[in-house]
Design a protein that fits this description.
- By secondary structure, this protein is of the alpha/beta class.
- It has a single domain (3-280), classed as Alpha/Beta hydrolase fold, catalytic domain (Rossmann fold).
- It has helices at 47-54, 83-100, 114-125, 152-170, 175-178, 186-198, 210-215, 234-242, 256-259, 273-280, and strands at 3-12, 17-26, 31-36, 58-62, 107-112, 134-138, 172-174, 183-185, 221-226, 249-254.
- The radius of gyration is 18 Å and the shape is globular.
């Protein structure tokens, strides 16, 4: 199978944002996947995953969050954005994929951690205008505090109040220093923390009712949780998927033995073959 490595500059939203949409495209792909990264993770770190999926017939496009990697923006006191802008950027990537692969009618949307959440939100908001056929979620789930096990759950409401305050006072969230995310725009942290406290998805400045749209979404969902991932436990994924019922849902729980590496939030990215096999339902490609 021939696989092409490609990159395309995408204009996100209407505020001058530009980023590179990385891609791995096989001949005659079975589906085109737009993959959304975790908070603070650059698209390039998913290239091994994209390669593993492309070997199994999936054309993979790696979205870049604004403020990360190839994005021409960086958050600061003067440069801020929230879920509204992130959702608009996803739509720009979807449009770029449609232009790059005009003959591909099957489109899948997926993501890791925050990426999985916003994949669901985007799919719900655009089910009429930009329909997709399935959702793939890895190490993802709603951050709502009640879905987490004790004793961690009791500290989360405090964290969901403290982190937006810190981001507001500092101008950005200094994620590298505190060990959570990267340097993050304060409004992203505000929108994320609101979900953590209320279990309701909302984007400041966006009139659309994301929560109602999610409850009206009917798509097949394949989710993968990892045994030692405290950032996205099984219950948080089930809490996210439950609002999209009765969409067919296939949830797979993987431990270190089945994954072939540590079963935590990030280790799978370096050894993604088993995750790619599970999502695509395929065996390893022939040597």
């Amino acid at each position: 199978m021939s696989i092409q490595a490609r990159s395309e500059t995408v204009a996100g939203n209407d505020d001058g944002h530009r980023f590179e949409l990385l891609a791995r495209t096989p001949d005659s792909p079975r589906t085109a996947l737009l993959w959304l990264p975790a908070l603070g993770v650059s698209a390039k770190h998913y290239l091994p995953f994209a390669d593993a999926l492309a070997e199994r017939g999936v054309a993979v496009f790696l979205h870049e969050w604004r403020g990360n990697g190839s994005s021409n923006l960086r958050p600061s006191r003067k440069a801020d954005w929230g879920y509204r802008e992130l959702l608009a950027d996803i739509a720009a990537s979807r449009a770029a994929i449609a232009a790059a692969l005009p003959g591909t009618t099957s489109h899948t949307l997926g993501g890791h951690s925050l990426g999985g959440q916003l994949a669901c939100c985007h799919a719900a908001l655009t089910k009429q205008t930009m329909p997709c056929e399935a959702l793939w979620l890895v190490a993802s789930g709603t951050p709502y505090w009640k879905w987490f096990a004790a004793p961690r759950r009791f500290g989360l409401p405090l964290a969901y109040r403290f982190l937006p305050w810190l981001a507001r006072v500092n101008g950005t969230l200094p994620g590298r220093r505190i060990g959570f995310g990267g340097t993050e725009a304060r409004s992203v942290i505000r929108d994320w923390a609101r979900v953590g406290l209320s279990d309701r998805y909302r984007a400041e400045g966006l009139d659309a009712d994301i929560e109602s749209a999610l409850h009206g979404l009917r798509l097949p969902v394949h989710g993968i949780t990892l045994a030692h991932d405290w950032l996205a436990p099984d219950a948080s994924l089930r809490g996210l998927v439950a609002r999209m019922q009765p969409a067919p849902a296939r949830l797979t729980h993987m431990d270190a033995a089945s994954l072939g590496t540590q079963a935590d939030h990030f280790a799978w990215m370096r050894k993604p073959n088993r995750v790619a096999e599970i999502l695509t339902g395929t065996s390893p490609p022939a040597a």
